[in-house]
Amino acid sequence: MPVNRRQFIRESIATAVVGLLYRDKIEAAPIPRFSALAFDAFPIFDPRPIFAVARSLYPDKGVELVNAWRTRQFEYQWLRAMAGTYADFWQVTEDALVFAAKLLELDLPSEKRAQIMQAHLDMKVWPDVPEVLASLRKAGVRLGFVSNATQNILRAGIRNSNLDGIFEHVLSTDQLRTYKPDPRAYQMAVDAFGLAKKDIGFVAFAGWDAAGAKAFGYATFWANRLNVPAEELGASADASGHTLAELVRFVMR
Questions:
Q1: Angstrom distance (rounded) from CA 102 to CA 86
Q2: Residue 30 pLDDT
Q3: First-residue to last-residue Cα distance in the chain
């Protein structure tokens, strides 16, 4: 059957236009800068309810208690790691709580201590997390944790937030009996993902963790949810934001 010349031209033009539109759509699709992201626990899990429990139990000195507790919590991690007297995150957190209560001359009976510690196992995600993680996974970015928190705390947060199967690796520095910012802790993501440093982005919650990850060699995003100043540690995050929406813009180029 002879081909109608006008019909042939119309179909050819239509095919060309569709091809151009499809090409433009492909070219416009964002490409992730990284093959994988390693997260600290707290850009994902909201720790504020933990401190709210402590403040509610000690309304007169709750803020002082939380401040003293958080300071000693990190100091105990690093001091124990340096001294070779390692104790895991759960233990140093409880020890720091006991010290802070003694410092402020507060009675800390076992039931109150247990209630505050239990809050670590009740954490859920920040509101923006599910949508952000779905967006990253849709783009093909592999996800994992590298945290000082114990496996029990991390796994509880995952269960509480219905995130089962989202994180390819759930890595606790407890496996190495050390704490970030020890370079060996950051190396865990390189080994687990089987990728070069340049192909992994790190997402920190604390300013010191952002500095540590950057010094290790990761492209680093600081999830500065508490809006605090950067630490003076000689290394700065590549980007920061108060929410993980800014993380998506950092990852997708």
A1: 22
A2: 75
A3: 50
In 10 A of CB 149, how many CB atoms? 26
Are the C-beta atoms of 211 and 238 separated by less than 8 Å?
Answer: no
Structure tokens at 10: 């119309």
241 occurs within a structural domain: yes
DSSP H helical ranges for 104-244: 110-118, 129-138, 151-160, 183-193, 207-216
CA 241 to chain centre: 13
Question: Between 151 and 26, where is the model more confident?
Answer: 151
Range of the domain at 53: 48-121
Burial grade of 233 (CB within 10 A; 0-12, 13-18, 19 or more): middle
Phi, psi for residue 58 in degrees, rounded to 5: -135, 70
* pTM score, whole prediction: 0.87
Is residue 180 domain-shared with residue 71, that is, in the same domain? no
Rounded Cα distance between 251 and 105, Å, is 47
Residue 177: left if φ>0, alpha if ψ -120 to 50, beta else—which one? left
Q: What pLDDT, in 10s, does the model give residues 67-91?
A: 999 999 999 999 999 999 999 999 9
Alpha carbon separation from 35 to 50, 141, 169, 194, 203 (Å, rounded):
33, 5, 14, 11, 14
Residue 253's pLDDT band (cuts 50, 70, 90): confident
SS3 of 207, please?
helix
Residue 78 one-letter amino acid: W
Is 40 annotated in the active site? yes
Mean pLDDT of 125-138: 96
Active-site residue identified among 40, 174, 182, 209: 40
Does residue 29 fall inside a structural domain? Answer: no
- Segment (H or E) for 21: helix 5-28
**Residue 25 forms part of a structural domain:** no
